[in-house]
TrEMBL record:
Source organism: Canicola haemoglobinophilus
Keywords assigned: Cell outer membrane, Lipoprotein, Membrane, Palmitate, Signal
Keyword Membrane appears in the UniProt entry: yes
Family named by the database record: Belongs to the LptE lipoprotein family.
InterPro entries: LPS_assembly_LptE
Localization (cell): Cell outer membrane
Binding partners and assembly: Component of the lipopolysaccharide transport and assembly complex. Interacts with LptD.
Any one GO BP annotation for this protein: lipopolysaccharide transport
Pfam family for this entry, one: LptE
Protein's name according to its UniProt entry: LPS-assembly lipoprotein LptE
Role this protein plays: Together with LptD, is involved in the assembly of lipopolysaccharide (LPS) at the surface of the outer membrane. Required for the proper assembly of LptD. Binds LPS and may serve as the LPS recognition site at the outer membrane.
MF GO annotations: lipopolysaccharide binding
Range of residues in the leader sequence: 1-21
Length: 167
């Protein structure tokens, strides 16, 4: 009886949400001044540049070629490192912390520059018996960390713009 009621309520709530035009915010918090910007990087085809470009596009930000009077987001550096946290009894690495540090600069149309950065950490359990599977899992984790760092950079850009408008 309760299972049927739960199913009906779940179905009704999904129908109500889809019928009222509900959708998740994508770029709603980004001010108009940041809706169009130039993305600069020393390697535009690096994994971090691609992740940042993807997150900007997901937030409805137009990325254009170099123009005057447009905000520039410069990806300065990306540092990936790992640190052993624990080891197995036989001396093999058991757990690592993967660390990603991204440094960027926002240059406004008035030529003022502001540094922003993102740091993302993630634990990774290493098992030498499944080395191939763990290397694929590690790459998936790195990709997720890049996406998180890109979201952090975008949040800091929004906070910076709000702070500058508040002056």
């Amino acid at each position: 009886m309760f299972k049927k009621i739960k199913t009906v309520l779940l179905g009704a709530s999904i129908l109500a949400i889809s019928a009222c035009g509900f959708h998740f915010q994508n770029g709603e918090l980004i001010p108009n001044e940041l809706r169009t910007l130039v993305l600069e990087s020393s390697d535009p085809h690096s994994d971090m540049s691609i992740a940042l470009r993807r997150q900007l596009q997901a937030n409805n930000v137009n990325i254009v070629e170099s123009q005057s009077n447009i905000t520039v987001l410069r990806l300065n550096s990306t540092k990936m490192s790992d640190q052993v946290v624990s080891i197995f009894k036989r001396g093999h690495e058991a757990e690592k912390i993967l660390m990603l540090e991204v440094q960027a600069t926002v240059r406004l149309p008035n030529k003022q520059s502001y540094p922003i950065s993102a740091n993302v950490n993630h634990t990774f359990f290493d098992n030498s018996r499944a080395a191939l599977a763990k290397s694929v899992e590690k790459e998936v984790i790195w990709n997720d960390m890049r996406e998180q760092a890109a979201r952090q950079l975008i949040s800091q850009m929004i906070a910076l713009q709000a702070q500058l408008q508040g002056k």
